């Protein structure tokens, strides 16, 4: 390349650099945002809506007292520092914005116009507050159960679902997301949309016992569950689960405490799944019906979660790490609000925004199958319900 060609290339590079040079900002702070402290949503709405508990609950998805307690827990972590340039955003406003984002499913741009904060500021607030909600609530709202906790969970399942020695129901759901950058087909699922998976175990009070978040949409329930730390601890007997005990007064065989799931999960001595096939005997049909009565609690829980935190009603359009943080935050908030404020029954009847995870294939162990037969015998003898025959016909 001669000198003239080099000069031409250099000139072209200079021209390109000038044309690509970023334009200077029109405003340091946009006039619309400058009036945030006098006309923003938080300024004109927050104090007024606190006077009306029902309206506040509908807006923030929790009671005023629950909001105040959560705010006290978060204040040390999300309180900023005032500078000479501008005062910091208050922790009350940060939490209020985050709860509205999670509860309504609105987008950052909607909050940008109503709260008069920059879109990047809104995004940073959501990330910060979700992170610290999970940090603060995970041990308080999703603690590792003790032996006494497991016994109480089993007692409640027996009382509410008529299923003895049951310590949880497990299932997984697809959470819709916008395709992550440079992710290929990792998050593309069998229903032809992008997702990450929320795998959860719950008790009979519609509260999470354990969650596993962030697996790619292409995975199935059984694969995620068997690869989870919870499953490894379950198989290694590291969860303080009580020793097996008989479920029948006539059959002295000790039966282990079990988790109920659908056909996606392999049958073991610790996991109960329904009998497969179409031409089932009456005893097997009754077992499947009784198992579904216990397993429905996890389906109802997903309905309560999605109807309460409507961020799940649409594809979540944020980075993959923030998606996982949002899901974990909503699960922790679900337990927090469920414990303090209860739930609406109608929310258990539908599961908007979630999709089933495909079933994997796992063989039943011989020991697990024998314990399933013990349950099936019990449900057709001394443990039978007066209406169960009419429910399977």
Automatic annotation (TrEMBL):
Domain DDE Tnp4 span(s) in chain numbering: 170-335
A GO term, aspect molecular function: hydrolase activity
One Pfam family named in its UniProt record: DDE_Tnp_4
Intracellular or extracellular location(s): Nucleus
GO cellular component: nucleus
Keywords: Hydrolase, Metal-binding, Nuclease, Nucleus
Keyword Phosphoprotein: no
Cofactor: a divalent metal cation
Highest taxon listed in the record's lineage: Eukaryota
Similarity remark: Belongs to the HARBI1 family.
Entry protein name: DDE Tnp4 domain-containing protein
Organism: Parnassius mnemosyne (clouded apollo)
Record lineage: Eukaryota, Metazoa, Ecdysozoa, Arthropoda, Hexapoda
